[in-house]
């Protein structure tokens, strides 16, 4: 069935096979509503903008599509374009409205109704409205809007029976205040009410698609209407929203709740900074120390290293026949660098799995409690200087746990440009905890001053690289959307479910990639490729004042960063050499698994540029430090 947003579309047009879109502002509970209606879990987060991909599900005889949260139907950014497209295609909309934010959310509702989109309003978060002393006269709201309004508490499944029942009655008022503006459009234009409304609001994709007489796939000249018209229509709609809110809502309590007071403390730089540092410290302690060091150490070494690897080795040796052709197979499966059944499994199960689970657990808690967006607001200004916004704080912290993991979290930092910058910075100068552990051990014997020197160099490189990328990459980074979700007690069920789902999805995508890479590197190793690389690296190792053996360290670094740092433990080096060597291995290329992830999350060109860039920066900075300290490799 075609979209039916023309004037006069009524309930009878919504029948079996109709497509329903779930539309609402960010963080109003759409994902929970979707889960309730479709009986299917989608990622629920107390963080605006977590629904980036859309999900389609069957709901009774309808098809139901989840959409990214938007404040209005327009096409200024990626989320808006996705939602706009879905709304234009849909037969009806379930508009989720946050009862504690009527004044904000009803703009979208009225816009949908102006467009003639058959709508049912799910007035969600009624529990929070009640707690905040917000009294809404639902019948009056229904009368004012002219469409069904159903109060819901999505997390408790309240109101859904009613909602399901009233969806077939989705409708839109026959006429709209916006119709007066349609006169601005060419007389011969053949467009639906939805299209006309968007056109008078200056919708660019539609304006570009207009040809004489109709809306076409492409062609025609953009800007059909005066540029100022949008503001006029928006202003008029906002005043309609205000009068609806004034007539249906009464606020009986005005003092701040505890959650609001905590929130204020968190975003005030004076009190927020120590809270943020403590939170970051806690995350680091949990992911970087407790899990990445202790648990992973136990699992990787004491369990898998001591029991699993010997067992699999003897099993494979027992199964494979004793013949020369078996040798390469045995090497691919069992070699000590990246054997498919040995080190690769040891890494995936012993390190990556616990890290992934720990990470998702921590992030889910931070998201659902509302701490995460407040951290983003606090760190926003500093990160702006390097072309990022506050949302990038998470990948940076996570990177200190595991860079591979952090690269996935760059999904949440906003535009493609910011994702590229944060990925590049992560790959370049954020040491992962496994590497940091070994590095700390090595530096501890040199003294505190070297430790600060090491951190100082990394910060300078991060700053310079960030500013460089910000200036050279085309476009501009997006500002942080300032709207803060409310602070809530996380729901354990949701945290566990989300962690499980995210970890499962991650592993399902990552395991084949890692296995393939391990096989390819092992094959290269078998034919002597890694030794050849080591010999070829000699000019570079002397450039940074390191002995020839440092080539071996770099080859290990291509595979895993902590291997590289660990490779330096039994080399005879001066203090300055240890320092320079550690800076070089930190800035050196991301480990092979991070590279696989960069390839997957970005594209081949960015991955190659980042890889080559790391060589240049590592040896450039290493060369400067070597010259400064006068270190010479033997
Ligand atoms: N108290 C309360 N919390 C709710 C209700 N509905 C949803 N939530 C919580 O609100 C937060 C946001 O819910 P989501 O379903 O992720 O919101 P969304 O609209 O899909 O958000 P985006 O996808 O980011 O636009 C989560 O922490 C939910 O647990 C409700 O009726 N009452």
From TrEMBL:
List the keywords (alphabetical): Cell membrane, GTP-binding, Ion transport, Iron, Iron transport, Membrane, Nucleotide-binding, Transmembrane, Transmembrane helix, Transport
Matches recorded under CDD domains: FeoB
**Record-linked PROSITE patterns:** G_FEOB
So where does GTP get bound?
24-31, 49-53, 66-69, 124-127
Q: Name one Pfam family in it.
A: Gate
Location in or out of the cell: Cell membrane
Q: How does it sit in the membrane?
A: Multi-pass membrane protein
Principal location class: membrane
How is this protein named in the record?
A: Ferrous iron transport protein B
Record the organism: Halorhabdus tiamatea SARL4B
